[in-house]
Amino acid sequence: MWIAEDSIELFGIENWGNGYFSINDKGNLIILPDKNPSLIIDSMELIEEIESSKDLEFPVLFRFPQIFENRITEINDAFHCAMEEFRYNGQYRPIFPMKVNQRKEVIEYILKYGAKYNIGLEVGTKAELLAALSLGPPKEALVICNGYKDEDYLRLALSINNVNNIIIVVDLFEEIFDILRYSRQMGVTPRIGMRMKLFSRGSGRWVESGGESAKFGLSTSEALELMKLLGENGLIESLKMIHFHIGSQITDIRMIKNAMNEAARIYAKVRKIAKVEYLNVGGGLSVDYNGSNTSTPSSANYTLQEYANDVVYTIQKICEEEDVQHPIIVSESGRAIAAYHSMLIFKIIGKKNAKDLFLRIPSQDDPIQIEDLCCAFREMNIENYKEHYHDALQYRDELYDSFNLGNIGLEERAKGETLFWMVCKKAASFAKQDGDESEEFQELKKLVSQKYIGNFSLFQSVPDMWGVGQIFPTMPLHRLKEMPCEHGTIVDLTCDSDGEIKRYTGDSEGREQLDMHPLIDGEDYYVGIFLLGAYQDTLGDFHNLLGCAHEVHIMAEGSDWYICQKVEGDTCRKLLDFFNYDTKDYIWEIMDRCVERKQFIDKKELDQVEAQLNRTLNGYTYFITKTKTQGAAKRIGGSI
Ligand SMILES: *Cc1c(COP(=O)(O)O)cnc(C)c1O
């Protein structure tokens, strides 16, 4: 018998879920926003609620604001715990870097739940600074300005210097001249940070962000020159922060220790020249997406507590050695704060590769290869399957050759294709029994595996899966007390062959296939992609003009829950507008063209065109599986 625990193990939920996900005794995936069974959300109850309210279609992105609260608290607690253990004489301040997720609602949740820890924001562009300011962070909360800074960026930051706790980080040496000039002109005393280029590099996918050739940061001589300049201008007190960032998703704890050592040493030396208050250790705290607990790119070989311990211990040790005051430690762990809070839910709308659906009965006049294929199928067994499979490959090639030469027709081609697929499927099943792991049979397995069509866009919702081959946990959300006896891969709605989930959780490399349940006619099958909260929301693109998905934000209250916010996704109209198609007069232009081209078009025909244009323009960009009566085909303007 298959029980929920078997699914938990099969899909590796406990390895990647970090305590936020599990399966209940109904076989449904559940969410535990504070890792505690006193707060539980049953994903299928939620899905039913959305289906029955009929105002939103799938795909839908779920956000769980309480997961932010838990993440921020855990990170904060980890640092406090380490500070206590190592008798650290300083404080800790968490920062959320805006580039990880700029959505307004997300930043609002982070500011709300992070307020008790004095959470601040880090911005990298003018627009991010404007966005941060619009949400009115508390006066004490740090707002750290990074990135390339032009006059507007610097003047904006300086102008609000006195009402916010702004720190302008010098990422490029030349910026200091502008900062000095504008602050003199504006009569403000700037608070300055200095981003250091470390010799230590990160590890994993974003290793280029660190090291000597990194894009940002000052060399040692630039740092000395900067301090000299500040001193000459009577502004040495303005230097408040030493900053570094060796890259995101640092998978190997040794890299963190090395960088921390170097940075703490730099802090200590600088501290003897200027009274810097903060040591900002940047981001990089990893998320174990595939649950393998290794230093492979989608994972991490350390825990949050180990990270905090290493940061605090190293800084404290070096400060003692150098006999300088312990700095306020600032960290900018964006990924670790945001990744877990959201998941995408979509339905499977079909299956490809059902090539043996229309078996045609072979006849006397068929070419010899068809008979050979029949033979191969009939006589195949575990002893001889390889041989028959190789033969079948040849028969198939011969058949296509004859078709291309015009010797056989469509009928024969169809028979040959179907038989070939039947041979492949049979061979694949023998290979599995036989434990054949050869490359050839891996290929065959892929050839005969199912492709499930998911109603979502990988490019819009999971861009890092496409861009950098990152693994995101993907699994069905229900029927998890049933043994999943099918397997295959999931393809998305785009017409792009890259729109396919190619790796699934299970082992450190990722499995090539997902275990699935057989689809049942007339019943929806829901799949979730997890851990989408970091970077995916704004990196996503509009491939094939598929837009943002609807969003539902859910709060748990005991074993109950409620929807606290709905954010509608994009309509086709919004996408067209975004790409400069003016949709204001769209309908009238098309209708005018109808009238022009067909002089005696009747009113009924025109009405149909108008209604359908309206409906499609104002509808969701994704595949709509149910027809609604309300809200559809509302006419705009008068009739002709
Ligand atoms: C991107 C970035 C971060 C966030 O890094 P994570 O690995 O997501 O925590 C932090 N600080 C700076 C300066 C960054 O550019």
Chain-wise SSE layout:
Elements: H1 4-10, H2 13-16, E1 21-23, E2 29-31, E3 41-42, H3 43-53, E4 60-63, H4 65-85, E5 92-97, H5 104-114, E6 120-123, H6 126-134, E7 142-145, H7 151-159, E8 165-170, H8 175-186, E9 192-195, H9 220-232, E10 239-243, H10 253-271, E11 278-280, H11 304-322, E12 328-331, H12 334-338, E13 342-352, H13 368-379, H14 385-404, H15 410-434, H16 439-448, E14 450-454, H17 458-461, H18 463-467, E15 474-476, E16 486-491, E17 500-501, E18 514-516, E19 526-529, H19 536-539, E20 550-557, E21 560-567, H20 572-578, H21 586-597, H22 603-617
Parallel strand pairs: 4-20, 5-6, 5-12, 6-7, 7-8, 8-9, 9-10, 10-11, 11-12, 14-16
Antiparallel strand pairs: 1-2, 2-3, 4-13, 13-14, 13-19, 15-19, 16-17, 16-18, 20-21
Helix pairs in contact: 4-5, 4-11, 7-8, 10-11, 13-14, 13-15, 14-15, 15-16, 21-22
The structure holds pyridoxal-5'-phosphate.
Pyridoxal-5'-phosphate binds at residues 97, 99-100, 122, 146, 245, 248-249, 282-285, 332-336, 534.
